[in-house]
Amino acid sequence: MRQGKQLADSAGRLGATNNEMEMTAFLESLKKLEQLGLTQQPLLFVLNSQYVIKSVSDTKEGPA
After folding, report:
1. How much is the mean pLDDT over the chain?
2. Which residues contact 58 (CB under 8 A, 6 or more apart)?
3. Which of 10, 20, 43, 58 has minimal CB crowding within 10 Å?
4. Which residue spans within 1-64 are E strands per DSSP?
5. Of the candidates 47, 61, 57, 60, which has an alpha carbon nearest to the alpha carbon of residue 19?
6. What per-residue string of b and e applies to 28-54 under the rule 16 or more CB within 10 Å gives b?
7. Rounded to whole angstroms, how far apart are CA atoms 23 and 56?
8. Is the model's pLDDT at 2 over the cut of 50?
């Protein structure tokens, strides 16, 4: 505690953007599923972050 305020760590990063943290959460969930041996079956993610959705579903390749 500092000056009567309680501090907690949510594994965030000072200065991180919302998009960075949304992507981090998604990637950490994939890592956990891999640790649990659950990546050999179909997975369904329910997401509300358009940034993450576009990042993982856009299959178009950029300019060569």
Report:
1. 79
2. none
3. 10
4. none
5. 47
6. eeeeeeeeeeeeeeeeeeeeeeeebee
7. 10
8. no
